[in-house]
Amino acid sequence: MNIAVLVKASLDTNMLRVDSSGRLLIEDTPLAISEYDRNAVEEAVKIKEAHGGKVVAFSLLTWGPIARKEKDAENVLREALAMGADEAHLVSDESLLPGEVGITAQVLAKLLDEHGPFDIVLTGEASMDMLSSQLPARIAEKIGASVITYVRKIEVADGVVRATRDLEDSLETIESKTPVVISVTGEINQPRLPTLLQIRRSFAKPLNKYKLSDLGIPSIVRKLDMAEVKLVTVSRKNIVLEGDKLEDIAEKLIEKLMEEGVVKG
Question: What is the count of structural domains for the chain?
């Protein structure tokens, strides 16, 4: 059972850098493994442990500048290797910055074709910075595989994958033959924390880097047009309600909520 897992080096939402106007300083914000992709790596390793085979991690650098961000992307893949992936591949090319999901899918599909075939391609339900949730379906279309999204449980038997997926108000269980692309939710597992020994061993595992020319892909002309990214700030009104009794305070609270249109009388 050969498994590919797609891992994104996303803008670290816990360490966003902004200027005085609220503009996001992308070049100064570090990258970290996308949270749902960590769940995807964990699930890939669990399937390998149960059925054998190998886990190969793939990533594409979507944020620049390369000189400052490539090391972050390598660290993200090293984390996947420490968790149990067997090898990793990173595409890092100036013409891909900033990343656009259609181009990302095109390049990753090419990489999957070159290093496959894979029975299962796992990824998170969405990246923690862009949240488009488009990549799994785009990848599946390009490599000619089925796709199952928002999966919280996976069972594999005799070349058939049974997946339980989250819908808005219910759960759905479906089956698919391999190859299949699966996006997972955070409920699917609890990602393991690599030990110090596993982290050290990850540096002995192969991590290969590519430019587009290495993959036979011409430089990308179409890019994401990102003029500016600003944070949305929410200011509090800091209204203090006072009263001698809780009933008086509750009445004042209801009045304020009615004034704001939160509740209706």
Answer: 2
Q: What is the CATH number of the domain that holds 72?
A: 3.40.50.620
Same domain? 208 vs 250: no
Interval 74-117: pLDDT, tens: 999 999 999 999 999 999 998 888 888 999 999 999 999 999 89
Calpha distance 156→1 (Å, rounded): 10
**Same domain (yes/no): 37, 83:** yes
Give the whole-angstrom CA distance, residue 6 versus residue 41.
8
pLDDT at 185: 96
The type of residue at 204 is A
pLDDT along the chain (265 residues), means of 10: 96 88 88 96 97 96 92 97 98 90 94 95 94 94 96 94 94 96 97 95 97 86 69 77 87 87 77
Q: 159: which 2 tokens?
A: 């070349």
176 belongs to a structural domain: yes
Look up the domain containing 53 and give its range: 2-215
